[in-house]
Design a protein that fits this description.
The chain has one domain: Rossmann fold. A hairpin with an 8-residue loop joins strand 9 and strand 10. The relative contact order is 0.22. It contains 8 helices and 12 strands. The protein is α/β, with parallel strands linked by helices. The longest helix is centred in the middle third of the chain and has 19 residues. The strands form 2 sheets. Strands 3, 4, 5, 6, 7, 8, 9, 10, 11 and 12 form a 10-stranded mixed sheet that branches. A two-stranded antiparallel sheet has the order 1-2. Helix content is 33%, strand content 29%. One of its GO terms (molecular function) is ATP binding. It comes from Methanofollis liminatans DSM 4140. It holds the Pfam family ATPase. Keywords: ATP-binding, Nucleotide-binding.
């Protein structure tokens, strides 16, 4: 099948969806990679909320923030949490420091949970904490590959956020996830030569089977939404 004939899933971020030629493919896996403060979680929540508005069920798994912090972030944006929480939206906090529990929950229990609630959109925020559970690089690569392949059997579209490498804002923390997913969205800061102001910018680095914008575009995190200015240029 021609990729352009496949069903698209929108983020609900107008400028970003246009950069993605209408959205990511339904059932695909996308990674949002960015350094601290770039809004990875906010982009992921916007993706979840767009699905909820369309009547879909969603799961948001946090390996970092407490569930009440996620709830607070949703409410702060003026989104209707009460309508969805524990009905069509399920927010789950996992503790990545408990090795055995975290690995089993993510690898074994998550697929079962997705099927039991009928979730069409799933977020893991951030996947880099799951990667960090494995201290051996070979094991990390193997376990991440197995997880990705297992998730491809589920009837959902998956977003994985990832921190960047400490000294490289263009690569994920372990430089693995971008090779295994279908779409990579990079969030970063651009600093003008005069250092007068920092501009957050988004780039679609990779999108298998689809045309996509290769331009770097500015964005802004507003109170109730993310706004990507797809017609503007970053200076």
């Amino acid at each position: 099948m021609n990729g352009d004939d496949e069903q698209r899933v929108q983020f609900g971020i107008e400028g970003l969806d246009s950069m993605l030629s209408g959205g990511i493919f339904e059932g695909s896996i996308c990674s949002i990679v960015g350094t601290y403060g770039t809004g990875k979680t906010t982009f992921a929540l916007q993706f979840i909320y767009e699905g909820l508005k369309q009547g879909e069920k969603a799961i948001f798994i946090s390996l970092d923030e407490r569930t009440e912090m996620i709830h607070r972030d949703i409410l702060r944006r003026g989104w209707d949490l009460d309508t969805y929480l524990d009905k069509s939206l399920f927010v789950i906090k996992l503790d990545p420091t408990d090795f055995t529990v975290a690995v089993n929950q993510i690898k074994d229990e998550l697929p079962q949970l997705i099927r039991s609630v009928g979730a069409r959109r799933v977020v893991i925020d951030p996947i880099s904490l799951f990667e960090g559970i494995f201290t051996d690089e070979s094991t990390r690569r193997q376990e991440l590959f197995r997880f990705i392949e297992r998730m491809r059997d589920e009837d959902c579209t998956l977003i994985l956020t990832s921190e960047t490498l400490q000294n490289n804002p263009y690569a994920s923390k372990y430089s693995l996830i971008e090779y295994m997913v279908d779409t990579v969205i990079l969030l970063r800061y651009i600093r003008p030569s005069d250092l007068s102001e920092v501009h957050p910018a988004v780039e679609v680095v990779k999108m298998r089977g689809s045309n996509h914008s290769r331009e770097i575009k500015p964005y802004e995190i507003l109170k109730d939404r993310v706004q990507v200015y797809s017609e503007a240029n970053v200076f």
